[in-house]
Structure formats: C-alpha cells, structure tokens
Amino acid sequence: MSVKWVLVFPLVLMFSGSSSPGKVLVWPIDFSHWLNMKVILHELIDRGHQVTVLVPSSFLGIDFSQPSQFHVEVISVPFSKEDAEALMQDFIRMWSYQRHELSFWRFSMNSFDLMTDMLQRSKIICDTVLLNETLLGKLESAHFDLVIADAAMPCGELVALKFNRPFIYSLRFTFGNTMERLCGGLPSPPSYVPATMGGFTDRMTFTQRMGNMFFYLSQDILFHHFLFKEFDNLFSEVLGSMVKNLTDEKSALVALALSQLPQKVIWRYKGKKPDTLGANTRLYDWIPQNDLLGHPKTKAFITHGGTNGIYEAIYHSIPLVGIPMFADQPDNIGHMKAKGMAVELNIHTMTAKDLVEAVNTVIHNATYKENAVRISQIHHDQPIKPLERAVFWIEFVMRHKSVKHLRVAAYDLTWYQYHNLDVIAFLVTCVALFVLIAVKCCAFCCWKCCSFRKKTKKE
Description:
- The protein is of the alpha/beta class.
- The chain is built from 17 helices and eleven strands.
- The strands form two sheets. Strands 8-7-1-9-10-11 form a six-stranded parallel sheet, with helices on both faces. Strands 4-3-2-5-6 form a five-stranded parallel sheet, sandwiched between helices.
- Helix 1 (32-46) links the parallel strand 2 and strand 3.
- Helix 2 (81-101) runs antiparallel to helix 3, helix 9 (248-259) crosses helix 13 (352-364) and helix 13 (352-364) packs across helix 14 (366-380).
- The longest helix has 38 residues, at 421-458.
- It starts with a strand and ends with a helix.
- 32% of the residues are buried.
C-alpha cells in the first residue's frame, strides 16, 4: 500500500571559471545566514582556496571544539553563545507575537531598542577586531585576496577597507532594502519594488504604494540618523532556525490539525510534545529537510517561509502552506501566494480547521502543484548551477582585484541628479517662463488694443 507523506517544518531557519588558489577572509553572520555562506565556502575549499573565518566567541554556527575545513579565527567578546541565542529568541518572539499584541508605538519602541542592542553588540565585535593591533597584523600578514562579508550587520566592509582588499557581500535582504539601495545603488522605485518587511508584492494598490513609499522613507531616516549613526565615526576612524518552539496553545492547535490529515506527517519540533498529537505524526529535533522535500511521496510543505525552505520547495516543486512569523517570511509567503504556489495562514488567528483545509487545498487542488512545477522548471532553466555562478564571481573578483567597471553609475550622482530633480526643475522653469512670457505678451497686446480703441474714440 502506497503511503503519502506531508512534510511539516513550520519553525526553523532563514556560480565557473578557473582561478589560481587564493586566500579568502570571511566575516559571517550567525544562524540561517551562516548556512548559506557555508555552502559557498565549502565549494571554494574544494577548488583549492584557503578560507579563514573571522567569528566572535559567541558564534553559534561553529563548534570550536570540533575540527573544521576552515581556519577559524575566534574573537573573544564579553557575551556568550547563550546571550546571543537569547537575544535572537527575543527578536523572534517580538516579531512573531508582540507585533500583534502591542500598540504600534510600543512595538516600534521595542523594535528600536532591540535593534540598538544588536548593533551595539556588533560594534563591540567590530571594535575588538579593529583595535587589536596583534590580530590586525596577523591578518594583514596573511595577504588575503578577498573579503566576503554579510551585510546584515556592519564591519566586514571595514575590515576589507582596512586591508585595502576587494570585498563581496553575501546578502538576502535588509529592512526596506536599505543597504541594497543606499550602498549598492540598486534602483528600487516604490511604485513596483516592495520594501522588504513591508509584506507587499510587485502588484500594489494605491494605498499599498503609498505605504511602501513611507516605509522606504522611514527606513532611510532610521538608517542615516539613528541605527547606524555610531558607525559613521568608526568608518571615519578606520578610513581615516531559529524559532525552536511555538506556544503550548499553538502547538496543540497544529498537532490537532495534523492528526486529522489522512497522510503521514513529519514535524521538526523541539518543544514539549503536544497532548493532541496524532498517531500519524512523528516529531524530530532535526530532519534532512532538502532530502525529504525531494522525496517522491512528499505532497505538501507546511513552513514558516524562510528563504532556504522556500528555494528548496521551489527546487523540488512542492506546494506550500505558509505560516509566516517574522522577518522576510511574510514577504516570501506573499510572493509564493501571488504565484499560485501557496496558501497563507495567520498564526495568530488560524484554527485547526483552517490548517486542515489549507493542506487539503494544496494537495487536492491540482493548480497548486502545476504552478509549483512551472516555477520549478523556470528555476532549473539556468546555464550553470547557482553555486557555480556564485563561486565564479568570487573568483572573478580575486582575478581582477577590482570590479569598478561593474559599479552602477548612481554612485557618481547626487540625490537630486539620481531622481532627475534638476532636470525636472529646469523643465518646470522653462514652462513657467514660457507661460509668463505668453501671459505678458497677451497682456501687452490687450493693453495696446485697448489703448488704440480709446484713442480712436477720442478722435
């Protein structure tokens, strides 16, 4: 008897050319960011490159007691791995739950405080590296060819500038596409490019476009005047899965819904075993997610909508039931829903019945599978594999030392030139002058005409 499987994973996580062996210095970010970075680094090592990873002692992604393919340079910082884990859990809890429980202003203040705390820790790590002459001397003597940094937190680019080395960003997103727009110069018209974390797609109503524009503006103000203000001085000096558990209530709700499905279910979950767990559901602390998604009997994927899971589902053409919680997850699930590959549920309002119906919909409504297959075929239709493409561009920079020829011209424009405000002002002035001259000419003609008539009547 054939067995159908439903893969459940709601609570985890977020390129060729020959080149002589080089030395790469890496400034990574923890958690799901490290998972993506690590794949590229392993490929670089397989191609003969030497990789040095610069991480704080609070870094959770690497077990320092175990041997590694990388050379790991550990920076001693005044906070532990437990502190880093607690801070991340606070961030997840705030965006997953408090966002729906607190007032807008209270939530905004809490968010600002938490982001300030994260950036302060990042600054401590940065200071620890840049003020350590012994470490800097050691790194400089290694003669690295390239620095790879994650733009989610600053300082990797500072290290590259300190050693006068080219650097490459590994980046999924920043709030409001801030780094991408302001540092990368990527065009992002608010009319159709949704700001990350805004929850919009590229098809927006008038109200959504207005909200998107204000979200961009608010992130620019935060970036320039608040969150990254402290790093300005630092630049001048130098130049000069994440969610482990649901609440007991939500766990019981999900377990109850899964028990009503005719399929067998694999659920990656680390919390207390729910009393409503059905005989068809198995709990695991860890699962080989990508392998299970590629299993021919997997019919659906219940996910929080992290980037890694989304791409794996696309690769294996598995339709989704999305329950986004924080960060880019609402955006990711929103895009999949717009493409007809997913059903979205709200974790705060959904019922067991909603979850059962959503799973049945993506399994039994053939449209979702068809769309998933179509998107997967587009995703697969590439001249080279994405990993090979990523490594190619890394080696490209190592070979040529500089890629200024690829830099967008926006770097050389002022803000008013970028938005063509000077051109618009000139055209408006021309039109205004033309109208003014036309009005004056008409007025003069009218005056002359009236004067001529008065003179004629007097005669």
